[in-house]
Structures are given as C-alpha cells and as structure tokens.
C-alpha cells in the first residue's frame, strides 16, 4: 500500500499534519475485509464500526447503566487531574485517539491551572473532528498551541512532533482492543516517540465479575447488539455487500483464559454473502461466528509487566472508588 505524502494545514496557533489521503479508508477497509473474510477464522477490526450511525450508537452505549468504563475513567480524571499535572510537570499533552477531546479538557484545565500548558498534540484518523475540536480548544485556552496529526496508529506514530516535556495519553481503554502481540507492538511504537523523562498516561479496564462485564457488552436494551451489527451495514454501504443483519446474532462472552471480552456475530443459518466490490462470495455455516472485537481487561501486575517490557516504569496508579478502572502513569527512563 503506497504511503501518501503528508500535507500540512497551518495557522499561527494551529498546525495539522495530514498523513491519510482521501482514498486511505477505502484501501484499508478493502484489505481488512478481504483478509478477514477469507481467513479460516473470520475476524474484522473494530475500527470499522464507526460510521456516523456507529459513532452515535457508541455514544448511546457510554450512557447506559450497564456500561461503566467511560464514567469510571471520567471520575478518575476529575478527581486526579491536578495530581496528574503535578506528577508529570509536562507542558505538552499528546493524545492518541483524541476524538472530540471531551475528557481531555479536564487534563488541559489542570495543566493550565499550574501554569504548565503550552502545547496540545491530538492524534486521530478523522481530520474533520480533529480540526473542529482544535478550533474549540483554541478559543478556550488563550495562548495554547495545537499541532494535530491525522494518521493511523499502525503507520504514523513516528510522525508525532516532539518537543517540550511530554505526557502521552492513551485513554478510553483503547489498549484493550489489541491482542498481546499487537499491544506490545503498539506500546513499542509509542515509546519510540518518547524521550527519557517523558511520561505515558494509560487507561485500562480492570478484571472483575464476568457477569458485570457481559452485561456491559450485551446490554438489556440491545444497543450494543445494534452497534455490533452496524459493521454489516458499513460493509453493505461501503463495499456493496448484501449482509442481512437479521440473519446474525450478537454474541458477547468473557474469555477467562485470555481475560478479555470477545464480541462476535453468529450466523443463524447457512448462508452465502456477496461482497460485490471485492468480487467475493463468503459462506457462513449455521452457528459460525465472526469476531468483531476484543476488549482486554487488566490486572495491575499485568500492566506493570507490559509497561516494563517496553522500557516504561510505573509511577502512579489511580482507580475509581469501585475499583473498576485504572489510570496509570509511567515514565521512560
């Protein structure tokens, strides 16, 4: 896959480096679907959930009573933001998967209160969302410089600008969507952008009663099921596929060996699906499952071990009052 030449959009206090050309999403989706649907065990990356409808459904999920991670992380940030700012002493916040920068404001507020805040570096795949949120932030934080990067975790972390004293944040439990091998690769790539003394703020969902975990990913209103099936709508719309979502059911189970939530779509009957744009016919046997997401859950000891394996030393560990979720702060020595 050819790498597009980056473009740079610049104003005095806002720079945006764009490393994704307009065709990137189509090329990547085609390759992911071709690889995932022709494998012996069918599997598709969860990033393709998020068209406009998928994003709206996930936003609805985060407000469900059963789905605790978003509010748990927000609770920690609200109560510990000052401690985080003081502990890092950073003047630059780099946020991976910045989105609308909703929770980020809590950290920016704290850094600003202590006279530390100079630069914010949002990294996201969506140029539109990144630019819109950046313009909002510039009106809220006079004197702030923003250097955004539009890119993909797997290809463009090396393009993150460096300078100042940095804290890199990966929030939202995003790390849990990666299996152990790809998780280590991601952490290694993140560390490669850091200098000694830089720090890493990581959000991780913690292991807990499996019944609570299953409820969080298979809610009583069926919103998560609709979110899971939205992947099929995306393939129909983007690749001319003819998936009938009513012929699949949502499956959410906790794998107590790997300690992750495993989300799948199970075929309710023998069927063949046509993906026209790939000239591909895909057979599903009755009861066959296609994985659409994993969401790993962590223990403190495991987080310490995985961070240490890439050269990071755990400095601080904060949880919400229920002990459901953790933010960890580690340093590159």
Give a description of the structure:
There is one protein chain. The chain has 10 helices and 14 strands. The chain has 333 residues and is of the alpha/beta class. It has 2 domains: 7-22 and 67-208 and 299-332, Vaccinia Virus protein VP39 (Rossmann fold); 43-65 and 211-296, no CATH class. α2 (52-61) packs antiparallel against α9 and α3 (69-88) packs parallel to α4. The longest helix is centred in the N-terminal third of the chain and has 20 residues, at 69-88. The radius of gyration is 20 Å and the shape is globular.
Number of domains: 2
Looking at the structure, the CATH topology of the largest domain is: Rossmann fold
| CATH architectural arrangement of the largest domain | 3-Layer(aba) Sandwich
Tell me the radius of gyration: 20 Å
Proportion of residues in β-strands: 25-35%
Multimer state: single chain
Helix content: 25-40%
Count of extended strands: 14
Cross-sheet strand order for the largest sheet: 1-2-5-4-3-6-7-14-13
Cα shape: globular
The pLDDT mean sits at 94
Residue stretches low in confidence (pLDDT < 50, at least 5 long) are none
Output the number of helix runs.
Answer: 10
Briefly note the structural class of the backbone.
Answer: alpha/beta
The run of helices and strands is: EEHHHEHEHEHEHEHHEEEEEHEE
Main beta-sheet annotation: 9 strands, mixed
Q: In CATH, what is the homologous superfamily of the largest domain?
A: Vaccinia Virus protein VP39
CATH class of the largest domain: Alpha Beta
Distance between the termini: 35 Å
